[in-house]
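Fold sample X.
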Amino acid sequence: MKNGPSAHVVGDELTSVAHRDQPSVDSQGHELDEGIEGLVLKRLAPIADHRGSLIPFLDVRDEFWTEPVVYGYEIMIRPGRIKGWGMHELQTDRYLVANGKIRVVLYDGRADRESHGRIAQFFFTEASPGLLAIPPGVWHADQNWGDTDARIVNFPTRAYDPAEPDKLRIDPHSDVIPFDWELRDS
């Protein structure tokens, strides 16, 4: 690449059409929640040695677990697939995302909230596992962007009721929720 005066002129022209990144972390380096009220994101820190790794994720003294653990299940997503959109009216989903490459996308469907209509997305891998609490009324969908099966363990705040499931669904490709599922390089 050329580093002379012509490269500087091109750089000035590019700067005039460039868009500045929005902050993605706070002053302590913690990932921002993208402005959806009630959302809680907690990145986990794996502890690794030559034998493997350990990821502590459940400590009832932590604010993430203020409501008791009453039920749990695992979600498996095949490569390239999307599970969602789903929304609960009563329960908070509490995800443990520790395996696979997963994008969790949220849409705030709560008309009574300042964050109504906002979309947030979070990427998880084995190197960046985390806990994510998704409040009632927030639509969510999970996309496996890797090449192996991905897994999420959910600890919802309410046990599943087979007589009256607390789940509404929308096809992720219906465009009812305005989100483009394509993964871009920029």
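Fold sample Y, listed below.
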Amino acid sequence: MFLYRYHRRPDSMEVVAASSPSTGAQGDAQLIDRLVTSYRQRAETPTGLWAEIVERHADIHTALMADDRARVREILRNPATSDLMYGFESNARSLHHSRRLEDIHEPALALDALICLAEAIAARPMDNPESYMWRPVRSRIEQVLSQVETSFGFPLLLPNPIPRERGSVCSRGIVSYRVPQAIYQAWRISQLVSGIAHPRVLEIGGGLGRTALYAWQFGITDYTIIDIPISSLAQGNFLGRVLGEDAISLSGEDGASPAKIKLLAPSSFLDQPDRYHVVLNADSITEIGAAAAQQYWSAIQAKADVFLSINHEANPVVVAQLIKDTKGIAQYSRWPYWMRRGYVEEECRFAGC
């Protein structure tokens, strides 16, 4: 049954699997200080499915609030010693212990998704099962990366600042399943803001911050992620190590420059009048409960020119229904998401924008 998650024959891909080693992080004391200070100033309560997931973070919360720096350093330098990334990455303590099928298949799924990305941007021909031969031509990650980067016109960052990230090995490190997803999402944002001199983008629920990283590579630097405290902690830890501390601004810090990735509390979006050219939500608005989803949807209508949604429809909250129940939508498109089976990509433009 798990093979249905692939977009092509698994035996058509040549995969070498590995996990990223420890980086021996140094010089991160100031970054950790900022992350701890920002976290301790926040008190948002997660809703919906995340109200259950956050119970896994109790030990992390305790260490942060007690200012147990030895444990905090261990968590941020090696998040797999905790469940910091549980819910948006597979590199979490509980998942390493459970060895789910998706974790076992992650290296092959990562290459499968990278090929999907290349097909989506027309960097390689679409896989066609009607033309399958008995022995398939085997795709290799270096070839696919070259096709994607040639199409984009720049080399992609493929950092592994966090130990035990599992995926498909290439000459520059490990490519895990979430990497091609984030590259695709950043590419889609770049299409939507094409021609805008200084685009402002906001993402609701940013995972580890990978989409923000790749949006940065596409030249989109005024980027805001709205998320709960534990996710903002993980995002700041990842982006601060990859792009450097000066590239990020945390909740509670003064003087956020437009040319920074801003990691803010939900109130910064829900209660403030700022407008954005694009608001993105990928795989989260359907998981926060009906009341919170409606609150976000009202803010999106008021503050976004374009809303890009990438979500499944297996939860009670469905983005298509939110859109159907709304007046004042100038344009709406819906199609299967290129990168992940069972997910829908929806683009909504609001009247007057």
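Sample Y note: The first helix runs from residue 29 to 40.
Also: The longest strand covers residues 304-312.
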